Amino acid sequence: MPAFSAAWWDVSLDPSVRADSHAAERRDATNQPFVNPPTDDGRLGLTYERYLHLDRLLDAQEPASRVPDERVFVLTHQLFELAFKQILFDLGVIVRTFESLLAMDDDAFRRLALAPLPRAADADGPEPFWRPALTAAARVRHIVRRILPAVMPLMGRGDDDDVLFSTLEFGLFRAFLTPSSGFQAASLRLIQRALGKTPALALDLYPGDVFGHNYTGCPVGHVAPGSPLILGEGYARAFPPDGSDEARVAAFDAVAHAVLTRLAPLADGLPTPPPTPRLSDPDAERLVARFRATLGPDADEAPVHRFAAELSDAAAAENRRRDALAPARVGAQALLARAPRSCLAFVLDRIVAADVALHAPDGDSFLTVHRKTVRQHVPDGSGTGGGGMPYLVTSQRFLFPLFPALVAYADLAAMLSEDAAERW
Ligand code: HEM
Fold first, then answer.
1. CA 160, 166, 172, 176 torsion: positive or negative?
2. What is the atom index within ligand 1 of the atom nearest the CA of 378?
C-alpha cells in the first residue's frame, strides 16, 4: 500500500493549471472544494484546527513510560518523520519535472534543460516550468543540512552535554522500546533509494538476532537493512509497489541520469570526460574487513565469506550500471560546459549536496550527528534493534559512501568548483 494519501500527491506541475486558481483548487466529483467548501448559506467555516488535522496530529503520541523525557524522544522522531515526508515529496516533484522534460520533443527538451537560472534582479523569476523543482531541490538541501542537525540536539548534543536530554532518564525507558529502532525508519530508506543506495540496502550487514528473536521467534544471522524482517510494516513504504507515486521517488537517480543521457548530443566538440567512477576492489575489501572486525577475532569465517560474495555480486552489478551510464556522463559534461548556471544544474547540485549532508562520514552530516548522540546516551554502544554502534560505523563509513547519488554527475560538478563542496 502506498505510504501517503492520494491527496498528498495531487499536485500539478503544469504552469497554466497552477496559475488558474479554480483549476488549482482540489475539488470533488460535485465540484466542491475538498477543503473549506462553502456552507449552505455561502459562508466559509474552515478553522486552523481542521485544516491541519490537529486532532489526529496531536493525538498521535503514546509514550511507553511515565518518564517526562520520553515525550521529547517521541516528538523528535516524529519531527524527523515529517521532515522525511517533505523530502520525499520534494524529490517526487523533481522526478515529475524530469519525467515531463523527457516526454518533450528535442527542441523543447533542450530549451528547458539548458534554461538559465534568472539573475537576482530578474523580476520574472525562473522559467515557470522549473519553479516547483527549484524550490523543492533547495528545500531538500536546506532540510537535510539545517533542519535535521538542528532538531537532533533535542536528543542531546553528543558532547557530554545532557542539558537538553538526560542520559540517566533515557535509561529509565529505553528498554521498553526493544526491538523497535530508528533503524526501521522506512521513509529514510526510501530517500536513500532515491539517492542511489538501493544496492546498499540489500546487503546482509546487520546483526539481525534481536529482530529475528522478537519478530520471528528464531534468531537469524546477518540481515540487510532493507529486509522485510527489519522494516516490518514499513517495508511497503521503503519498497513501494510499481506505479505508485512513491515508486517514482525511488526511481529518482535513474530518471535524473536519463535526463543527462538525453543531453549527450550537446557534447559535440567537447573533450571526452573521465569515466564514471567505479566501485573499486579496495573499497569492497575495506567493507569486508570491517565486517570481519565487528565479528571479533574468534568468529567463524563462513559469514564473512558469504558477505564478501554478496558484496562482490552487488559491486559487479553496480559497475555494470555505471558503465551503462557513459552517455549520462557525456550529458553531464555537456550540461556543465554549455549551461553550468542552469535550472537543471541548480537542482542536481542541491541533491548531490543533500546526499552528502545526510550521509557523509565526517562533518555535521545527519548520520554523524546521530552517531554522536548514540555515543553520548548509549555508553556500551548497543542498539534497541541489536546492531548498535558497530553497525552505525560500518554503514556510514564503509557502506553508504560506495553508492553516491548522481554518480555520473557529482564528481564532474565538484571539479568545476574551487570549493569542491559547492558551486553556488
Ligand atoms: C537518544 C536518541 C537516539 C539513540 C540512542 C539512537 C540509537 C540508535 C542506534 C543504536 C542505532 C543502530 C541500530 C540499532 O541497533 O538499533 C540507530 C539507528 C538509527 N537511528 Fe537512532 N537513535 C536516536 C535517535 C534517533 C533519531 C531522533 C532519529 C531520527 C529519525 C534516528 C534515526 C535512526 C536511523 C535512521 C538509524 C539507522 C541508521 C543507518 O542505518 O545508518 N535515531 N539509532
1. negative
2. 5
Residue nearest to atom 7 of ligand 1 (CA): 374
CA proximity to 328, closest of 270, 278, 269, 267:
267
User: Is there a contact between 173 and 67 (Cβ–Cβ < 8 Å)?
Assistant: yes
- CB contact at 8 A, 264 and 328: yes
Residue 101 included in any domain:
yes
143: in domain: yes
C-beta separation of 115 from 343 below 8 A: yes
- Domains of the chain: total: 1
Q: What is the amino acid identity at position 379?
A: P
Pocket of ligand 1 (CB under 6 A): 76-77, 80, 155, 170, 181-183, 185, 188, 225, 367, 370, 373-374, 377-378, 383-388, 391-392, 395-396
Quote the distance between the C-alpha of residue 159 and its chain's center: 27
Range of the domain at 397: 73-415
160, HSE (Cβ side, Cα atoms, 13 Å): 0
Residue type, 7: A
SS3 222: strand
Distance in angstroms (rounded) separating the CA atoms of residues 403 and 265: 27
> 172 is written with which cell numbers?
529509565
Cell numbers describing residue 248 = 517514482
45 in a structural domain? no
Tens place of pLDDT per residue across the chain (424 aa): 557 899 999 999 999 999 898 999 999 999 999 999 998 898 999 999 999 999 999 999 999 999 999 999 999 999 999 999 999 999 999 999 999 999 999 999 999 999 999 877 677 888 899 999 999 999 999 999 999 999 999 998 767 678 999 999 999 999 999 999 999 999 999 999 999 999 999 999 999 999 999 999 998 999 999 999 999 999 999 999 999 999 999 999 999 999 999 999 999 999 999 999 999 999 999 999 999 999 988 889 999 999 999 999 999 999 999 999 999 999 999 999 999 999 999 999 999 999 999 999 988 899 999 999 999 999 888 888 888 999 999 999 999 999 999 999 999 988 876 544 455 5
Name 167's Cβ contacts closer than 8 Å, sequence gap at least 6: 156, 376, 377, 379
Q: Is residue 106 part of a domain?
A: yes
Distance between Cα 358 and ligand 1 center (Å): 13
SS3 158: coil
